[in-house]
């Protein structure tokens, strides 16, 4: 669900891991609501 995706993105675990991703790559992270 949208709420689960946002919670994952905002989690301390993802924020810590994202430091490595941001240092090594470029890209966009998109959460789309609805189907």
Compact overview of the structure:
The chain is an all-alpha fold. Helix content is 63%, strand content 0%. It has one domain (1-35).
Q: Termini, distance in Å?
A: 10 Å
> Which stretches of 5+ consecutive residues score pLDDT under 50?
none
Radius of gyration: 11 Å
Rounded mean pLDDT score = 90
Main sheet makeup: none
Q: Number of helical segments? A: 2
Gross geometry = flat
- Domain count, please report it: 1
Query: Which percent bin holds the helix content?
Result: 55-70%
Strand content: under 5%
What class do helices, strands and sheet pairing give? mainly alpha
Provide the succession of SSEs. Answer: HH
The number of distinct β-strands equals 0
Structure description:
By secondary structure, this protein is an all-alpha fold. The chain has one domain (1-35). Helices cover 63% and strands 0% of the residues. It is built from two helices and no strands. The longest helix is centred in the middle third of the chain and has 13 residues, at 12-24. The termini are close together.
Task: Describe the secondary-structure layout.
Blueprint: H1 2-10, H2 12-24
Notable characteristics:
about 35 residues, mainly alpha, 2 helices, about 65% helix
């Amino acid at each position: 669900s949208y709420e689960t995706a946002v919670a994952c993105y905002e989690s301390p675990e993802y924020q810590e891991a994202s430091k490595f991703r941001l240092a090594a790559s470029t890209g966009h992270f998109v959460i789309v609501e609805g189907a």
